[in-house]
Design brief:
Blueprint (H helix, E strand, L loop, with lengths): L1 H41 L44 E4 L14 E5 L15 E2 L3
Antiparallel strand pairs: 1-2, 2-3
Length: 129
């Protein structure tokens, strides 16, 4: 019974990790749509300094979003399924070196290890992949 119990535990852990990856991808897609709506109103995407919180709270950092009509999400920006804040990068910034050319922004979840890089469950989840 100990072997069966451990196999069930391993299978359950694997399913939980797959569900977290799926949830992170869904959250990223929702944030992308919210950013598109922000852009439609404001004519630009939030700066990295303003971050994803600009989707919930009107930015107070320059440049101000004059036509902000948010909030653009139905609740405050949540962390990823592992409890880590999503990373938001804008094209042209130092932090956006990995962002494919031509994309205006990227959203990244650091995955289960909560650190850049990794393999398997520890892999980063990127909005452009």
């Amino acid at each position: 019974t100990a072997i069966l119990t451990s196999q069930i535990g391993i299978a359950a852990h694997s399913l939980i990790q797959k569900a977290r990856v799926s949830a992170a991808r869904t959250q990223i897609e929702q944030l992308k749509l919210s950013l598109q709506n922000y852009f439609a109103d404001c004519g630009t995407f939030p700066t990295e300094e303003q971050g994803l919180s600009a989707l919930w709270d009107e930015p107070v950092l320059y440049p101000l979003a004059e036509n902000w009509a948010g909030p653009y999400t139905d609740r405050k920006i949540q962390n990823d399924p592992w409890g880590t804040p999503f990373r938001y990068v804008r094209n042209g910034s130092v932090n956006a070196a990995e962002l494919p050319k031509g994309l205006p922004f990227g959203i990244i979840s650091l995955g289960a290890d909560r650190a850049e890089g990794g393999e398997g469950n520890d892999s980063d989840i990127r909005s452009w992949e």
